[in-house]
Amino acid sequence: MNPPPMRQPQFVQLHREDRAAVHAELVAGLLAPQASLAPKYLYDPLGSRLFDAITALPEYYPTRTEAALLVAHGGAIAARLPQGATLVDLGAGNCEKAARLFNLLQPVRYVAVDISVDFLRTALQCLQRQFPALDMLGVGLDFSSELTLPPEAGTGPRLLFYPGSSIGNFTPRQALGFLRQVRAATQGGGLLIGVDLVKPLDILEPAYDDALGVTAAFNKNLLLHVNGLLGSDFRVQDWQHVAFFNQAHSRIEMHLQALHDLVVRWPGAERRFKAGERIHTENSYKYQASDFEALLREAGFSQTQAWTDERGWFAVFWAQA
Predict the structure, then answer these.
(1) Residue 250, burial from CB neighbour count under 10 angstroms (0-12, 13-18, 19+)
(2) Which strands, in side-by-side order, build the sheet including 10-13?
(3) For residue 108, which phi and psi values (nearest 5 degrees)?
(4) How do residues 32-54 score in pLDDT, each as one tens digit?
(5) 248 to each of 87, 172, 286, 315, how far by Cα in Å?
(6) CB burial class (10 A; 0-12, 13-18, 19+) of residue 305?
(7) Contact 265, 284 (CB under 8 A)
(8) pLDDT at residue 1 tops 70
(9) What spatial distance separates the first Cα and last Cα of the chain, rounded to whole Å?
(10) Considering the chain, what is the average pLDDT of its residues?
């Protein structure tokens, strides 16, 4: 019996870099009273690879806890999900998390969505060799702004997969708006989403400030990416990675802190930083399971179910559109 013919993944580039808009966004963030840079700029090709390394660290519990949940409850989860749907992987990265679900869910099509197009292209071409008969589509898209899938994603019910608790990068208000867009994109399917839960500080904080310094490198690499985009002169050695849990907002915050008084320049402007002044680079909100379920229902999902690990550290939610 001959093996199935080898398909080639398709690619659709919806994320077009608008240099003027990027420049304006970066400058506005750097000149704000509390300087900030959007977390999407963490994920240039090197940043994406560094994040892959973070997920393998002993301190970084979300990836392995979520993976164990999907294995332990895979049958029960699959029983709730539509079979033969299009699997849409939001923030696909190296595509490994979604690939583990292929045999369980038997999707008719796999749509991998990520802002880092070059990284996605390499990952999807490798994955196609492992699953030669599966129709695959790569979509370059900054869905943090707007989630609009191209016609090539096909019709029929869609299972949107958003693992890794990336929903925590949105404020609760932003998360509500995003979840409403997700519901519209499911076309009668649903959402499978990983959500990090509130837990003790001695577990939470090391996950974002590991002993090897990989997360620090990931955060500092943002400065090199900004230098390339803005023409700025950030020096990595001038900055320290800072991460802590903000109890009042129930979120991990990542910052870059100036080690001494310094000036950062770029064409047409500059920003002076005093020693100890920070640039806010990322939030990661942590939820109570009941609060996230309420958020899903407010976004318009009609049925929800959650599976958690025995320690209550992480949850995987199914939400029916």
Answers:
(1) middle
(2) 10-13, 135-140, 109-114, 86-90, 158-162, 190-196, 314-320, 303-308
(3) -85, -20
(4) 999 999 999 998 889 989 998 99
(5) 36, 13, 11, 22
(6) middle
(7) no
(8) no
(9) 41
(10) 94
